[in-house]
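Q: What does the assembled structure look like for these inputs?
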Amino acid sequence: MNNLNPDTNREFSVVGKRIPKLDAAQKAMGRAEYIQDIKLPGMLFGKILYSKHAHADIVKIDTSKARALAGVHAVLTGEDVPKKMKMGFYKDNPPIKKGKVCSFRDEVAAVAAISPEIAKKALDLIEIEYEELPGIFDPEKAMEKDSPLVHEYHKSNVLNLPWKLHYGDVEKAEKESDFVVEEKFTTQWVTHCCLGTSGAIALFDSNDNLTIHTNTQIPSLAQKDFLESLKAMGLVNKRVRVIKPIIGGGFGSKLDTYAYEHISILLAYACRKPVKIMFDRVEEFKATSTRQPTVIYIKQGCDKNGKLTFRDMRMVLDNGAYTSWGATTPSVMMMPITSLYRVDNVRFNAKCVYTNNTYSQAMRGYGNPQATFAIESTLDMLAEKAGIGRVDIRRINRNQPGDITPQGFKITSCGISECIDEVEKEFAIDGPKEKGIGTGIASLIHVGGGARIYKSDGCGAILKMDDYGKVDIFTGGTDMGQGLDNITAQIVAEELGLYVEDINVVHTDTDVCPWDVGAHASRSTFVAGNAALGAAKKVKETILEYGSKFLDADPEDLVLRDRAIFVSGDPEKSMPIDKLLRKAHFSPQGKMLMADFFYDPDNENMGKEFKGNMSVTYAFGAHGVKVKVDEETGKVQVLDYVAAHDVGRAINPLLLEGQVYGGVVMGLGYALTEEVVTRNGQNMNANFRDYKLFTAKDAIKIKAPVVETYDEYGPFGAKGIGEPGCVPTAPAIANAIYDAVGVRIFDLPITPEKVLAALKEKKSATTEI
Amino acid sequence: MKAFKYLSPKTIEEAIAFHGQHSETAKYMGGGTDVIVKVKEGWMEPDFLISLKKIKGLCELHKNDATGELSIGAMVTHATLEKSLMIQNEYPIIYDAVSNIGSLQVRNVGTIGGNLINAVPSADGAIPLIALDGVALLHGPDGERSVEVKDLFIEPYKTILKPGELLKKITIPPPAPHTGSAYIKFGRRAAMELPLIGIGVLLTLEDDLKTCAKARICLGVAAPTPMRAFDAEKFLAGKEINEEILIEAGKIAADESKVRDSVRGKAWHRKEMIRVHVRRMGLKCIEIIKNNR
Ligand SMILES: Cc1cc2nc3c(=O)[nH]c(=O)nc-3n(C[C@H](O)[C@H](O)[C@H](O)COP(=O)(O)OP(=O)(O)OC[C@H]3O[C@@H](n4cnc5c(N)ncnc54)[C@H](O)[C@@H]3O)c2cc1C
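A:
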């Protein structure tokens, strides 16, 4: 393996420091340029018309009035979209629909005009005649034989996807188990709620090359999507340049390309002018994708000592009307299902089913929160049944370094045990109880060293130094607010003995930045970090060569620190880095220092039966929570929260805590308040008043102890931490509620109504006895 | 958003005259936290917004020491009420309600008058003013008239105000001795939350500090307009107040409410919340009375 970092115990001057986000002041002062702020000369404004029905035939579209409106440059319908222009890996989603609509968010027409107001007016002038069709909104009903089909050509509402595995022998293990728990869980639609709404500006040059400014987490793969769109439009051998403005939050929402991006391309091409499409908040709620909702059937068993014997899970996923990455979340659900705790016999089967609902996307945790909710809830039930403490059952079955899990994951570093210690330090999980107050615990496993879900899991970096000791690093990695710029700068600064302010990180433009698979799977610190480190190491080698020459010393004895090069043990002999660089540059056969590095982790694509070491290393954690339940109202108050994570090493503890706090608050919303409410496929709460995102006043104090296990493959020992914060939150809360008042909620979010209804049911059951 | 002209009269007469000139296409504006949202969303398309901000006297919050009457100008903001020690000490029910409206930013500009005249069933500010037997002083083209706050509302977004009429102030009669009052907004979040149900209770006890001389039970989101639970109030009047009686009153109030299912909450749960919180707020009133003795 390409292990870049043998030195565990080195003293660091930049890595491990709480350095605030480099663009924090810029953002606080409103100077950061988001897509909203970008205006190009001659730019037109695009708007999209959405379906009025969940499922209907389009009988007639009349755009003549819209076309005739002064200021309108183009009106497009499904007829104007090239046949091969389809989005998503399943290629079932044209950017504008033709003939039939299958959900309320279906795009039926688009307009470009000289102002947003005129574009809006033009949309109002488009006349469409629909003939409604029966809709199907429940995925389990959609699987029945006589259910209406969402897409007739697909013959069945069930997608052809391979989500199925069975390791060991689940049936035998069940028979041999002393205790078995079987339950059904359901999880809801939630949405990312990025504060920066979506938008794109597309423009063509005179040679039909495309430049697109867009909020994306996947510049390289988006570039590929857009190239395909150009090809479908008959534009072959053209170039696509993707420019990312500053992004106001991603959380997975920007892992695929969306209709509005492709429509901006079509409109820009039709008008031969830049076309900007900006979402307002209602559109952001209605026309971007959600987390995948699930129906989960789970069975887990253990022997009389509490050792897990088997785990058997089946899921039905509401795919919505089209397919994006939400349909592949079972590939990540497999991770906790097969590898959270030691369990030899596991089976999993997931079906993604078309409905006339909205379609789902990647969202922080990528299926892991749903699966972990069922696993960790039933683990508590199993512990109770077996008469074993809730902490004990987790310790008995904990993962350990050196484990190879049934799916073939090689556990390198593993701090789950230390994380459980941290939770126990805060709460007596199995200790005495106060009335109405309860504690809960839940653990997590997540990829922490990349995730090989594409042909490459790589990231490139190009690094150059100038005559003044400054660095420009061009990275494939994407900063979307999480702080990758800081991490990159800290890693490079540490390696080259510089300060973070000496490092300029460029990640915004596919014309200058190397390839990267995307900012997903908590991989950027690990993969982009290793890419930056690799490039820095190459440049460092050259610096040391020159240093050895200029200072007449053995390269082994040279140290880079505080913008200078020193000979260790001989403080007299040193030279500032900028002087060294100029000396190297301005000598005969001069040299400027630059290097490139492409890091592709040594992980494996999942092979037959989904086996393979998906990630080079895995992140672990345990969350503990104390709640108070009002037994008369059903309201749950979170009193205290501790989220302990094994992160390998914290490159920047301040940013790391930010990721954990944000993750936990997102997880709390998932557990308690957030839900996209739909009625026959229609979004009923497309605003922040009725979509109950936690507010600053709801956010609770969170303790985020960091367990540093030092992973030998991570940059300076670091593993990923982007997603874990929201993974075990819901089951920790559900477990705490049960501990507090003895009712278990199987259906997210856990609203006061559900808790109170469960309490009433419990009361009537006990009085009947 | 449709463009509008912003007018800024300095007197009530001028405001009414502006309204008269533009009648159908003009709209009064207090803090604008309801109006501007509606204009932005395209639910309302006025050509003229007549701001009441510059009109002297509408922002006055004043208690007449001689009569004990409290007068709240229509343009008094929630933040002004929330920060007033007099309100905190003597009218806790107002404090309970306004201190939990929206966010700090909303409370800094949103006014009590706008809250009433916007006339939604969830208006937090309406409940305490009804419980306190508040009287609204209206001023229109035909002069002034008074109406009880409880009679202001016809249906969601509709009040009895005539075209051009505006709300000048609300007066609260002097509270009787041995009075306690409390309000709770039951919601799912700690801020930026409309109530799923709002419950305000006011109790006045006889000198024996046991017998109920007067009860007010007011509910938000329990009907198309803010409502009083008259049956529950009648039930309490003359009775010796204790927890059992309050539980009973809660049941009666829940029964006479007209709660319904909505995207935000279920009717059965709303009823349940009325039951629970009539008791809890009632007990809080008793505690306040005891503490003030
Ligand atoms: C983010 C947010 C959160 C909110 N949270 C809450 C909440 O928790 N609880 C709650 O109750 N409300 C809430 N609101 C609604 C609103 O803030 C309040 O109703 C506020 O009190 C309205 O006052 P205003 O001065 O801003 O009214 P405006 O918007 O100025 O006016 C509202 C209506 O009253 C009319 N009007 C205003 N003043 C007068 C007058 N003197 N005479 C005649 N007509 C008049 C206007 O024409 C308009 O029809 C919230 C609003 C926002 C935007």
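The domain at 61-172 of chain B is CATH 3.30.465.10 (Uridine Diphospho-n-acetylenolpyruvylglucosamine Reductase; domain 3).
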